[in-house]
Design brief:
- This protein has one domain (1-102): Rossmann fold.
- 35% of the residues lie in helices and 13% in strands.
- It contains 3 helices and 2 strands, in the order αβαβα.
- A two-stranded parallel sheet has the order 1-2.
- The chain is globular.
- It starts with 27 loop residues before the first helix and ends with a helix.
- InterPro entries: FNR_nucleotide-bd, SIP_fam, SIP_rossman_dom.
- Residues 1-79 form the SIP-like Rossmann fold domain.
- It holds the Pfam family SIP.
- This is Siderophore-interacting protein.
């Protein structure tokens, strides 16, 4: 489904449809991000989705395309995990990032 997102500012939304593929099993997000024609000036990005799909998107965006302060990339689910299993997995990932030397 696609919904209208009214705003007073400039907003570009790209809806990606899996066309029957199982969630988290396509490269739609990665392909769309890499194919996008980047505008001049400041870009803010909000990219949330399945954990494995975001692994290549985050470094690509941070490689001179989007300033870290203008980027929100976060996994909110993981293929094969229950909601509780995902929460446990995500907390271990966050702890690893916060540990000195990680």
């Amino acid at each position: 489904d696609e919904i209208e997102l009214p705003t007073d500012g400039h907003l570009e939304v790209r809806w990606l449809h899996r066309e029957g593929a199982h969630a988290g099993t396509t490269t739609l997000l990665d392909d769309a991000v890499r194919a996008w024609t980047w505008p001049e000036g400041r870009v803010q990005a909000f990219v949330h989705g399945e954990s494995a799909l975001l692994k290549s998107v985050r470094p690509y965006l941070l490689d001179g395309r989007v300033d870290r302060k203008d980027l929100s990339v976060s996994a909110y689910w993981r293929v094969g995990e229950t909601e509780e299993g995902f929460r446990v997995w995500k907390s271990t990932q966050e702890e690893a990032v916060m540990r000195p030397g990680a």
